[in-house]
Amino acid sequence: MTDTINVDYSTRIPNNVGLTEDRTVLRALEGWHPGYIDWWKDMGPEGFQEALVYLRTAVSVDPQGWAKFDYVKMPEYRWGVLLAPKEEGRKVNFGKHKGEAAFQEVPGEYRAMLRRLIVIQGDTEPASVEQQRHLGKTAPSLYDLRNLFQVNVEEGRHLWAMVYLLHKYFGRDGREEAEELLRRRSGDADSPRMLGAFNEKTPDWLSFFMFTFFTDRDGKMQLESLAQSGFDPLSRTCRFMLTEEAHHMFVGETGVGRTIQRTCEAMKKAGIEDANDIAKVRALGVIDLPTIQKKLNLHYSLTLDLFGAEISTNSANFYNAGLKGRFQETKIDDDHQLTNAVYPVLKLVDGKIVKVDEPALTALNMRLRDDYSEDCAKGVERWNRIVQKEGVNFRLELPHVAFNRKIGEFRNVNVTPKGLILGDADWAKVRDDYLPSSSDGEYLNSLMTGHFGVGEYAGWIAAPKVGIDNKPGDFEYVRIAA
Ligand SMILES: [Fe+2]
Ligand SMILES: [Fe+2]
Q: Which ligand is nearest to the CA of 246?
């Protein structure tokens, strides 16, 4: 019998899916493994492959105590295949198969659709590792360096999770897709990653924190809706991935929070009252709040594009087929088929931004995006409480959803963070007030220097309140090889 809670570490690929008895899939994954390691060495964290990093590794899928912490060299991290335990009698909970037993095999008619969903999710995982690979050398502390690497190895494991599904359920075309996932590269002109935000640069640590706050949170929303899937192996995979994802958003939220904290403390100490006096604040070697707002604007708007077009027949098809549900689908009180339901969607009508009721089925992307925005807004309020507590007069805000969009209804209009539509000439005059300018980038870059002393932190960021795994402030989270 396979132990579906604890992980079998006797095979080269740790797993709780009984790979020892599943020779075909085990061999396919073992065949894919060397290419993965090559990818990790080429595209994973630059300059730290020999360092010993204090990482958590999943040893179980039991919500109480699923991970253990230890020093490992990243290329030796035990990337494994882990699924949340099977729920007996689970059903398809929405769409036209609602009430039928959950699919344990891929339904023939949905094969292409399901493969596409898995490949799109899978493609984002290695992409962020590629985007973040150069950040190690400018880490503000060993604590932050360790958190970056934790996120990176887990994104690597998420790739394994999707590749397992491809190998196990999609035969030859699954194997081909798994190879392609190692071939595409973030930002590559010929062979980019599939989604826009995953081809952008992550030029500095504030970007990294914003990315893990905003873009990993999109990951959370996508995983939440795939965790609802009637295709049970996908649901179980995503449910366990969500356990890991929580830490990624913690890294983002506390990273930005600590940056804000440090800025406000420095302002107070220097007696600076006007948060918009950028030159004075920057003279203190901290990141002024207006620049933090601009970074927030950028990463939020880039991430909104990941939700796709406002009106999407694909999302309706995924839902009808029972493959991708809504956020917390089973907690929603309706028919879970949405035959006659409508959902309000912001659209551009005669040059104005207006709310229009659309069939709920084709507006599913917007529903998920609205749930996402609500989740983001709560985090922004937690940041504002830090500002308030320090007695600084400034408020961070999410920009309007039409701001800086490249996909959907608003891709061809200039919209301010408050939602005003501007002509090109007016927009050009204010653009740098709302989005990071090249001089903002230069300033941030000037702060990005590595701090590798034990218990040492860069001057622009506060130390965390609590260590990882409850370690003390002077803990050596990364032992950098001599
Ligand atoms: Fe991930
Ligand atoms: Fe993540």
A: 2
pLDDT, tens only, 340-366: 999 999 999 999 999 999 999 999 999
Q: What is the pTM of this model?
A: 0.96
Instruction: Find out whether 362 and 310 touch, Cβ atoms under 8 Å.
Output: no
Q: 465: Cβ–Cβ under 8 A, 6 or more apart, which residues?
A: none
List of long-range contacts for 265-272, beta carbons under 8 Å, 24+ apart = 265/390, 265/462, 267/390, 267/392, 268/390, 268/391, 268/392
For 112-167, write each residue's pLDDT tens digit: 999 999 999 999 999 999 999 999 999 999 999 999 999 999 999 999 999 999 99
Q: What is the average pLDDT score of the chain?
A: 95
CB 440 within 8 A of CB 200: no
Which helix H or strand E contains 206, and what residues bound it? helix 205-210
Residues having C-beta closer than 5 Å to ion ligand 2: 216, 219, 245, 248
The helix-helix angle for 142-169 and 232-270 (nearest 10°) equals: 160
Q: Give the torsion sign (CA, 168, 40, 464, 206).
A: negative
Ranges of beta strands (E only) in 158-251 are: none
